[in-house]
Amino acid sequence: MNTTPRGARRTDTTLSDGRQLIYYDPADAPVRVPLEDTRGLPAPKPQAEFRTDPLTGDVITYATHRNTRTYLPPADQCPLDASKPGNPTEIPDLDYNVAVFENRFPSFSGPGRCEVVCFTSDHNKSFTELSQGQARLVVDAWADRTAELSARPDVEYVFPFENRGREIGVTLSHPHGQIYAYPFLPPRTKTLMARAREYQEAAGSNLFADVLAAERKDGSRVIVENGNWTAFVPEAARWPVEVHLYPHRQVADLAELSVEERDDFAQLYLDVLHRFDSQYDDALPYIAAWNSAPVRVDRELGYLHLELLSIRRAKDKIKYLAGSESGMGAFISDTRPEDVAESLRKVGS
After folding, report:
1. Per-residue pLDDT tens for 272-298?
2. What is its EC number (predicted)?
3. Local structure of 257: helix, strand or coil
4. Does the pTM exceed 0.70?
5. How far is the C-alpha of 246 from the C-alpha of 229, rounded, in Å?
6. Helices marked H in the chain — which ranges?
7. Catalytic sites, residue numbers
């Protein structure tokens, strides 16, 4: 047991097959004594193969063992719930605040690592329904894992994210996210860093910082802001509902956020999520994707921010990637950024 740099209490243990499990509790919570995982699972044998596309330079990962992963189990058999007598799960304790463990069906391992982040033991909650304190604890867990995973020699990029909604492809309904610690730079990150490098050489300033400053000055696409963060619809949004959340200070990753910045993020993020769910009076399917600086290459060019993306283009309509998007990577949007921003401002007023 130890305390993370920003105050959460961390308790480490292992599952029966040797995978790591970490509990994160408030600093003033009772000391946790982890229960034993009694399932007697065999040692995992994930196999991942990496191939580089000669036409694009993108790394493609093949992880065929994931075809056997758990898929939409009944609610009373959810592997992310706390364990109950006679029903052991991935989390042996009878209750928890935030829990992080190595994915049993990882996209890659050996080089790199995949983890699952359970936001709460309450199966029926979503991130939107967390208290600000609980959301703040998740931020501490993300930050702690980012720091630890970034220190590994086989990791080049750390990517915390959440998929919500069956429309997105979620296979477990329990409120949770994941962390991919890539052994390579993902294609989007390579593109962003190349653009940031070109911009730095031409303008002498940081691309992301200047985008944030321009959005705050213009104001037409800003949704909400507080002392340390601003949420806005980007000028060239790709998705029907897309909001970016930026800290006002350039930091490389979650681990570099101050106490006050973490507090303000939790407040602002919950505000934005409530606006998402008020848009059509329904839980909006979304992907929440943390963009941070690479671990080693071009780290000084990165700027931590969260991109929140939804594929719902109307109350009863979903945007699917069609020929232009899937075949050419050229997005055609059915919604205008300024209109989306105005709508999200109104539902929060």
Report:
1. 999 999 988 889 999 999 999 999 999
2. 2.7.7.12
3. coil
4. yes
5. 6
6. 132-150, 187-203, 207-218, 259-279, 328, 337-347
7. 176
